[in-house]
Amino acid sequence: MILEVLVSFCPKLRDQSENFENRCTIVCYHGTDDNLISNIDKEKFGKNINCFIYREVSFDKVDGEIFKNTKHGLGSDYLKLFDYTMEKYKFNFDNGKTLELDTVEYNTNIRRYCIDYINKVPRLKIANISV
């Protein structure tokens, strides 16, 4: 989402995104009445990205459970959408692989944000920076 907005305002980023060699499956659900990015532009954007699956949500696909409207965000229940997507696309994960994530730290003028994965689940710590 953020990438697509940046790409629409920055031609250099658009050129770079066209050369982007994605290896992850991206499933994109996009409403026909989205007032931020049109469904036509979103579908066109996705054609330049490997493994991009575009799923348009029109009024006939609004079920009141997963999708509640066709506007930006679709009024989605994101947990149900996640379950639906995982079931529909039958992603295979190699359980034998170990994923090692480094601790990430961001500093601002007033706070330090630290994200660690010590227990395999991201943990965010926020600390004030003394001046």
Could you say how many structural domains there are in total? 2
- Tally of helical segments: 4
Class derived from helix and strand content = alpha+beta
| Alpha-carbon Rg, integer | 19 Å
Helicity level, as a percent range?
25-40%
**Mean pLDDT, nearest integer?**
82
Biggest sheet record:
3 strands, antiparallel
Please state how the strands of the largest beta sheet are arranged side by side: 3-4-5
Strand content: 15-25%
Terminal CA distance = 36 Å
Given the C-alpha coordinates, what overall shape results?
A: extended
Quaternary class: single chain
Give the number of DSSP strands: 5
Order of helices and strands: HHEHEHEEE
Q: Low-confidence stretches at least 5 residues in length (pLDDT < 50)?
A: 1-10
Brief synopsis:
The protein has 131 residues and is α+β, with helices and mostly antiparallel strands. It has 4 helices and 5 strands. It has 2 domains: 2-89, no CATH class; 95-131, no CATH class.
What does this structure look like?
It is built from four helices and five strands; from the N terminus they run ααβαβαβββ. The strands form two sheets. The protein has a three-stranded antiparallel sheet, with no helix packed on it. The protein folds into two domains: 2-89, no CATH class; 95-131, no CATH class. Helix 1 (2-9) packs across helix 2 (11-18). The chain is α+β, with helices and mostly antiparallel strands and 131 residues long. Mean pLDDT is 82; it is low at 1-10. It is extended and about 55 Å long. Helix content is 27%, strand content 21%. It has helices at residues 2-9, 11-18, 39-46, 78-89, and strands at residues 26-31, 52-57, 104-107, 111-116, 123-128. Strand 1, helix 3 and strand 2 form a beta-alpha-beta unit.
